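PROTEIN FOLDING TASK:
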Amino acid sequence: RRRHTLPASEFRCLGPEDAVSVFEIEREAFISVSGDCPLHLDEIRHFLSLCPELSLGWFEEGRLVAFIIGSLWDEDRLSQAALTLHRPHGTAVHIHVLAVHRAARQQGKGSILMWRYLQHLRCLPVVRRALLMCEDFLVPFYAKCGFEALGPCDVSVGALAFTEMQCAVRGHAFMRRNSGC
């Protein structure tokens, strides 16, 4: 008999107990590029406590290798307030951060995780679209994931400027057969 040799993978929503692992990956991924993390440890705990259903972690052999953290937003475009707020009556998900552990990069994991995340959001009936802000060099990556550029983002962090992007989600996937919801 042949045994399965691929590492066991699991995708699941994150909770406050995952905050330190999330922060370690995020810190390594962003400090070297921008000098700052999108979310600090207390903010990670805050979002994972308030809206764990808007996060998704990819675990291999029980270890976190990639994650996305989001929160609900209730305006057409992102503003400075979107960086720290979760608006429970919103219909847009603001994706705060997507990060992949350094040992798992350049393997397509970011694209796969984003695809899984968007499928996950389609199972949440209130969600209509996903929003994010990114530096210009990431626009092609997110465009391949189905996002369209809305133009310059009103949010800035220090000297960094961002492009705002959105992807229609439309919710109600739970009504479709074989949706996995």
